[in-house]
Each structure stands twice: as C-alpha cells, then as structure tokens.
Amino acid sequence: MERAGAAVIFSSRRTSADPTGYQQTATRMLELVQQQPGYLGMDSVRDADGFGITVSWWTSIEAAGLWKQQAEHLQAQQLGRDVWYEHYELRVCTVVREEFFPARQS
Q1: What is the pLDDT of residues 22-37, one digit of tens each?
Q2: Coil, strand or helix: which one is 33?
Q3: Angle at CA 70, nearest 5°, toward 66 and 76?
Q4: Do residues 64 and 6 touch, judged by C-beta distance below 8 A?
C-alpha cells in the first residue's frame, strides 16, 4: 500500500437544504476522486446535528491540490458554499508518520 504524504481535513456543518442533491453530488464526487491521481482513500463521519469530518489521504499535497481544481469538484464546492453548508473549515496537512495495527484474527 502506498503511504500518505498528505491529508485534507474537511469539517463542516450541513444545512437542511436539498438533501437529495447533496447525496447525489457526494456520490458523484466519490466516483471522481477515486479516479484522481494520487488519491489513496477517505474516512468520513457526520452526526445527527449535521456536523461532519472527512479526511482524504493523498500521495502528496500537490496531488490534493489538483483535486481541488477538478472542474466538477469546483462546481460542487460552489454549491456547498451556496446551499449545503452553514460553515466549513479545510486543513491541508503533511503526514509525518503513519502507524498501522492489524485487526486480531479469530
């Protein structure tokens, strides 16, 4: 498995507006990001009050930056600002260390 060189942490609070459009766009963004060079994976959670955190893992900060500029992703970002998010924060980080603990096998 290729090691992460960068992480993008996106924390947000959703509005109640357009849940169907949000879900459709989220599904499409997942399809697209999986095709993006340098993408390694994602972890995401959202609570019942609409607060969520998504961490995407990348081979480099440069690879993550190219995703930010992808055309359909740019449209989704604008819809997020206009419709789907009360607020959000984005942090781009360099991964300085990774550790893995394998699950115990029964």
Answers
A1: 999 999 999 999 999 9
A2: helix
A3: 130
A4: yes
| Residues ≥6 apart with Cβ < 8 Å to 87 | 12, 13
Q: How far apart, in Å, are the Cα atoms of 84 and each of 15, 24, 56, 73?
A: 5, 12, 19, 14
Residues in the chain, total: 106
Top-tier CATH class for 6-94? alpha beta
Angstrom distance (rounded) from CA 99 to CA 23: 32
The whole-angstrom separation of Cα 74 and Cα 2 is: 27
Model pTM above 0.90: no
- For residues 66 and 90, give the distance between their C-alpha atoms in angstroms, rounded to a whole number: 15
Domain ranges for the chain, please list them.
6-94
